[in-house]
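User: Can you fold this complex?
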Amino acid sequence: MDYPSKVLSQAVEQIATLPGIGHKTALRMALHLLRQPREQVHLLATALSELADNTHHCHICHNICDANTCDICADTSRKKDLICVVEDIRDVLAIEQTGLYRGVYHVLGGRISPVEGIGPSDIEIESLVDRVKNGDVSEIIFALSATIEGDTTAYYIYKMLPKGTVKLSSIARGVSVGGELQYTDNITLARSIQNRIPYDGSF
Amino acid sequence: MDYPSKVLSQAVEQIATLPGIGHKTALRMALHLLRQPREQVHLLATALSELADNTHHCHICHNICDANTCDICADTSRKKDLICVVEDIRDVLAIEQTGLYRGVYHVLGGRISPVEGIGPSDIEIESLVDRVKNGDVSEIIFALSATIEGDTTAYYIYKMLPKGTVKLSSIARGVSVGGELQYTDNITLARSIQNRIPYDGSF
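Assistant: Here's the predicted assembly.
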């Protein structure tokens, strides 16, 4: 579209590079920013520049952090021999929010997906294998998506790991807490029967 | 939410100030930006800073522009005595896209809305009245929203303008071209019958 101002046009074009933002929404956002105090827009611009320049990935688990090592890996109260393998930083946030997990993580940064052109070398699998080989790891929990890609990734890691040195587990798949059976999809229901757990009168 | 990085946390917080963006979407955008080349993120940040610092409002019509006067007001082939009054810059863009209008604009920057606390002095009504008083204006076209606020704004301007000096008109409201009668809302349909136009065998 032909905007009356080159500066506006550039801003719209740049905002529209964000995921899920089209040109119409980008224009709405740009006009919204124009109505804000100048300092507010600079705060946003500075936060984005800082994001590009000053974020690091933890050299151990590849989580995002401000230093060389993330807070979770640096926390001495965490069980360093228990590694939860996730695809994305958002998965770490989700698990941390439960407040129940006291081990550490390994963020793969994606999953093996031939369709999207993501191979094993594109994600942090080698560094995970190195962690197991070099460190004192007793258990790895796979917390990957319940998709073919997620399963493929878990299987690939399983094949790469030295045999018998480490216990492997996967997070449970089943009917969600509060979920009703009749609304649960077939595959989840089938898996929840397959992977049934012993019942001793308590939950 | 507790993010593993302060820089990330700040970026998410700032992105979430954009209209229609919650914290989850903001996080998705921030993580998307982290996967982009650093220069791309800087381009976005610079475009936003430029937007805050280098956009001007045309001193005649209050459209956004890079100079003191916008391209439309500076265009000598435009009819300067025909002013289309709109609420927003996006309305200018929409009308310009039709390619049919050859007059100039007056961007109010909003509409009178007591509910939102927007009074007549908060939008560019006085400067419009000045344009009519000082200049050679023959017609004003109201292209405002078909809402109570839009009608109120038009009525207020009508009351403020010197009587009888300028022809006033409003864009036609009716069934949209290609629209089917049965799916048109009652008020629009009623208005389209009220404001029926003479038919001479041509469209």
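DSSP finds eight helices and six strands in chain A. Strands of chain A lie at 56-57, 64-65, 79-86, 103-107, 139-142, 167-170.
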